[in-house]
Every structure is written in C-alpha cells, then in structure tokens.
Specification:
With 264 residues, this protein is of the alpha+beta class. The chain contains five helices and 13 strands.
C-alpha cells in the first residue's frame, strides 16, 4: 500500500531546481514604455529563459530569426511546453530612477562621434533578489547540466538582470520534488511565488487580500517565439515584500521545506 502511494505521488510530481538570482541593480523593461523605460517588479518568464540560456551556453541568433546550425533557440528550449518556471520575491521590491547615458541616434545612427550622447531616465530595481523554481520534464540531460553549472558557478556566458551592465549572482539552493496538488474544495491556498491570475478559479473571489500587504499586478510576456514575438501575455500578481499570496488556484505544486508554488 505504501509503495503504491509513493508511485502515485511520483507520477504527479516533478523534479525542481531551486536557485537564487541577485544583483545591486536590474531592469526588466515594460513593453508599453518608450521614452522613460519602466521596469517590471520581477523578471519576466522570458527573461529567466534568457538567463538559463546564458548559463547553459545557448548561442544567440546570427541574424534576425537565424540561428547557428543545430542550435535550439532559448525561447523554444525553455518554452511553456517544455519547462516550468516560478518566481519568488526574496528581497522587498525597491525602485529608483537613474539617468543613463545613451547614444543619441536622433542625430546620427551610424556615426557615433557625430551622434554624441543623450541622457534617458531609467526606472531600475535596487538590491533585488529572487528565488527561481525550474522544472524540465522532457530533457533530463539539460536539467542536470544546468544544475551542475549553477552548483559550481560554471556559467558559459555571464548572466545579467535585464541590462548587460547588471551582472547577476546565481546561487544554487536545492533540488526537490514538487508534488502536483488539486484544490478540489476551492480552498484558499498560500502561494509563495508570483501568481499568474489566469490559473485561478474565477467563480468566486480568487484572491484573499491582506490589507497590510503591498500588491502589484502587471500584464507580462509569458511566451516568445524564435523571432522574439510575444505569443502570450498574462496578468501576474505579486506581493512586493515577498509575503505569500492567498489565492484559489485549481491546482498548485507543493515543495517540501519551501511551500506552495504556481508556475507562470
């Protein structure tokens, strides 16, 4: 009986790599800002795919939509179909505006000496730290390679948080089984990660708000194709200080010693 229960749990579980990413500054540009770029409060799913690609050494395209022979683009390798990614806020979200020197392409696009510089104010994240939960069911070789590289800080390319000057520190935390759990009674579940609102039961109040908490919801890119066209957006809810979110998902994953997570 006990072995049958263990087999049942294993069939409804997945191996999850847990690691932290941090930096003094970061910027994950909102798609609908132009002159003064604003940032999301957490890295987008597509940005995390890029970080994983840098660690693994996945080559980028040599031209728009053209990749070296035999290379699977990170957008496809770490797509929703192939992988699961969840984000937990560790350090409270802090933002500040910083003037950044850029090339003034309005004067000249090709002659950098003639173009000169212009200052643009960027909204940046400050002292950011996130915990990433990553699963890859159909490619154990890649999963094990990423685990080994993160454990030993053996990154192929330097990972960064949104802009190349914001080099990321990546720290291995753990490898655990995440057990799929169905919320049969539509109960309030405490979720430790950012919540994709499309995964909640909308028949009743899907979120129980704590009025002492600080919530933020943004429409974020979830999936891109190989030519960087966004294929899916979703409304994602966070609590800025890293508190758990009380919600009613149809299902969630329980990770022992960590809590309940929802993949984006």
């Amino acid at each position: 009986m006990e072995s049958q229960l263990k087999r049942s749990i294993k069939m409804n579980s997945k191996e999850v790599l847990i690691f932290d990413i941090s930096s003094e500054y970061g910027h994950f540009r909102k798609y609908n800002t132009t002159t003064s770029p604003l940032t999301y409060s957490i890295p987008t799913r597509t940005a995390i795919a890029g970080i994983l690609g840098a660690i693994a050494g996945i080559e980028r395209e040599v031209a728009d939509g053209v990749y070296p022979e035999g290379v699977i683009p990170v957008q496809e390798l770490f797509s929703k179909k192939n992988t699961d990614i969840a984000v937990q806020i560790i350090n409270p979200v802090k933002k500040e505006n910083v003037a950044v020197n850029l090339v003034n392409t309005k004067v000249s696009f090709y002659n950098l000496t003639k173009a000169g510089r212009t200052q643009i104010e960027f909204e940046l994240l400050r002292d950011l730290k996130y915990r990433i939960f990553f699963a890859m069911d159909n490619n154990k070789v890649m999963f094990d390679e990423l685990t080994e590289r993160i454990k030993n800080k053996r990154h192929h390319f330097s990972p960064y948080l949104g802009l190349a000057q914001f080099t990321a520190t990546v720290d291995y935390v753990d490898t655990k089984d995440a057990v799929l759990t169905e919320n049969k009674n539509n109960e309030i579940i405490e979720i430790i990660t950012a919540v994709n609102l499309s995964l909640l039961n909308e028949k009743e109040k899907p979120v129980e708000f704590d009025y002492s908490a600080m919530y933020s919801a943004n429409n974020m890119p979830i999936e891109m194709n190989r030519v960087r066209e966004v294929q899916e957006y979703s409304e994602v809810l966070i609590e800025k200080n890293g508190k758990s979110i009380k919600a009613k998902p149809d299902f969630y994953y329980y990770i022992e010693d960590y809590g309940n997570v929802l993949f984006l």
